[in-house]
Amino acid sequence: MRKKITKRKKEIPVSTKNITGIMISSGIGFITIMILTFIASLILSKSSALTSSIAIYFIGSVTIGSLITGFIASKKCTFKGFISGIIASLPLLFCVTVVMLVFSHGRLIPETAILYVGIIVFSAIGGIISANTKRRK
């Protein structure tokens, strides 16, 4: 009789190192988004650019902030880059939602869902990029 071979499922380790890494990466990503949005608003207020281009600058800053969030989370956490990027995007989603609710007087537009998907996807991409880069010794 043969023994039945079962694969063990890998569990995501919950440790203070992982939680701290996720919170630090989300904080750095959020600060990046705020700084880039502030710079874009300064540029737009000094130039004669259209107000519709504000959304383009905001989406660009969110994309860069999400990539940075996933990249840092993958370096600081012990689990895989894709997973760490997605998990790190969740606190970032919360922070972006709170700021959007404050500045829009409690109303969110339907296009916000697209922004949320973008944050998750680009955080995961940042995590994958970070996991595939060589670590310096």
Helices, strands, pairings?
Layout: H1 16-46, H2 53-76, H3 81-103, H4 112-132
Structure description:
- This protein has helices at 16-46, 53-76, 81-103, 112-132.
- With 137 residues, it is mainly α.
- The termini are far apart.
Tell me briefly what this model is.
The chain is mainly alpha-helical and 137 residues long.
Bin the strand percentage.
under 5%
Oligomeric state of the chains present here: single chain
Regions with little confidence, pLDDT below 50 for 5+ residues: none
How far the N terminus sits from the C terminus, by CA atoms, comes to 49 Å
Helix content: over 70%
Largest sheet, strands/sense/barrel: none
Class from secondary-structure proportions:
mainly alpha
Features:
137 residues; 0% strand; elongated; mainly alpha; 4 helices
